[in-house]
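I had to read the description of the data format several times before I understood it. For illustration, here is how one protein appears when written out as sequence plus C-alpha cells:
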Amino acid sequence: MCKTRLKHFFCKVVDTEKKTVYTVYIEYTQYIHARRGKLDILISNASARPIYEQIEMQIKNAIISGALQAGDALPSMRLLAKELQISVITTKRAYEELERDGFIVTVAGKGCFVAYYNTACIKEEQCKRIEEALKEAITLAKTSGVTLNELQETLQILFRGESL
C-alpha cells in the first residue's frame, strides 16, 4: 500500500502586468507499508538527504531495532520502486549500500534478504561513523568559535529531536 501526503503546494504564476513571478514549491511524503507491518518507509522530497539514503537509513534502523530479522526477505527493487513511485536505479543504489555495509545479502534469482549479522559488529561500525561525523562537527565548532558547552547543549537538543 502506498500513500502520498501533500504537505505544501505552491505554484509558479507570472503576472505580466506587474512583471512578477511566483515560484512553485511542492513538498510531499511517500509512505509504503510492506512485509506485513515489518517495513515502513517514508520518503520526502523536502529532505536534504537523497532518496536512496532515506531508504537505506530506514531499512538499517529496522534491522538494528529488530523489526526485520536475519533471513527476512526485502521487497524486490522493482516492487519498492513501484510502491514509492521512484526509479529502480534509486532502490538499487540503496540496496547496494546496504549490501556493502553488510546489512543485507543478495541471492541471485531470489532477491535480497536481511543478513545474519553480529549486532556488536554493526554497532561498532555505526559508532565509528558517528565518531567521524563528530570529529567533523568539533573541527567546525573550533574554527567557528563555538565552546564545548555550546556544542554539548546543541548535541543534547538535537539528540532529543528538538529544533534549535
Confidence is low (pLDDT under 50) at residues 6-11, 31-37. The helical segments are 51-65, 77-84, 88-100, 119-144, 148-159. Residues 120-159 form one domain.
